[in-house]
Amino acid sequence: MRHPATTLYVIAEQLGLAAQASWKDVLITGVATLDDAKEGDLSFLANRKYARQASQTEASVILTDHHSKIDHPKAIVIRVDQPYMALAKHLSQIESTFKTPQRSNNSVIVPKTAQIHASVILLEGVCIEEGVVIGAHSKIGPGAKILEGSIIGEHVIIDAGAVIGAEGFGWIPDEKGQFHRVPQLGNVILHNHVYVGANTTIDRAALGSTTIGEGTKIDNLCMIGHNVVIGKHTVIAAQSGVAGSTTIGDNCMIAGQVGIAGHLKIGNQVKILAQSGVMSDVIDNRTIFGTPSLDSRHFLKSFAAFKKQGE
After folding, report:
1. Quick count: other Cβ atoms within 10 Å of Cβ 5?
2. Residue 264 burial (CB < 10 Å; 0-12/13-18/19+)?
3. The pLDDT value given to residue 308
4. At the fourth CATH level, which superfamily is domain 115-299?
5. CA gap 59, 20 in Å, rounded
6. Which CATH number fits domain 2-97: 3.40.50.2300, 3.40.980.20, 3.40.1350.10, 3.40.1390.10?
7. pLDDT, tens digit, for every residue of 110-127?
8. pLDDT recorded at residue 139
9. Which of 78, 83, 48 lies closest to 60 in space, CA to CA?
């Protein structure tokens, strides 16, 4: 991606790095991957599996960590604690050159009972229902629906097509096996700095609130059931689902296509690897894998034994 020319010296200062005087003469005109980079581009190496590309890239500058061994004949190699974080900060600095400033769409109808801060951006096709509250500097993407009574904090981003506050999946069978609706009278609360990806749904509680904690990020196409409580700074990758009344702690990492059963307690700093099926409680600081999920080390040992049985 091309951007207005700046110097490596300026970039280093913006990133809080010790800028060298010679960098005032190094012109940076773009950001690119190692494979796509050309002269004048800044690139990065955050995963050692791409070390070969780093040694062959045409980039003028490479951000990498203190432990990587890059031998490049031309590029300036800058070592930082977290190269991907440094790249993210740089992209934040130049983001405005790639995007048109967004403003609220005047066609969005806001009910009188809703409280929407003046700084909130509501894009085309957004639906806001009665009693909704949205805090300062939040952005609601095209076609997203914020349904009755939902409370959205500050600096929240809800991407295109997401639905916040739809009726929870509450049904009870009678003695004949016929299902009857359980009214869902609660709401959804998203705390500050939450991100909700495109086409993700977060259902309202039957009673009380479905709650997403501060700083938590939920990817596209996820399903969060009624009365779920998710703690602070947890990340959930795409196509994952959490069934009703489950509690997830702080600082958890949930990979793609994970399914979590209802009425469970997942502790703090838990890692759940991709496509796992979680059917029981998980204590703090565990890494689990598989279906039904096990401690990841036990799963891999079991899988190795299973493979040997087939030989």
Report:
1. 10
2. middle
3. 73
4. Hexapeptide repeat proteins (2.160.10.10)
5. 19
6. 3.40.1390.10
7. 999 999 999 999 999 999
8. 96
9. 78
Task: Look up 226 and say whether it is catalytic.
Answer: yes
Q: Where in the chain is the domain with CATH 3.40.1390.10?
A: 2-97
Between the alpha carbon of residue 250 and those of residues 155, 201, 264, the distances in Å are: 19, 21, 15
Spacing of C-alpha 219 from chain mean position: 5
Listed in order, the ranges of the chain carrying CATH 2.160.10.10 are 115-299
Tell whether omega for the bond before 101 is within 30 degrees of 0, i.e. cis: no
Catalytic residue among 193, 226, 233, 263: 226
* 226 residue type, one letter: H
Q: Residue-wise over 48-77: b if at least 16 C-beta within 10 A, else e?
A: eebbebbbebbbbbbbbbeebeeeeeebbe
Tell me the residue length of the chain. Answer: 311
- The pTM of the full predicted model, rounded to 2 decimals, is 0.87
- Under-50 pLDDT residues of the chain: none
Q: Tokens at residue 24, please?
A: 């005032």
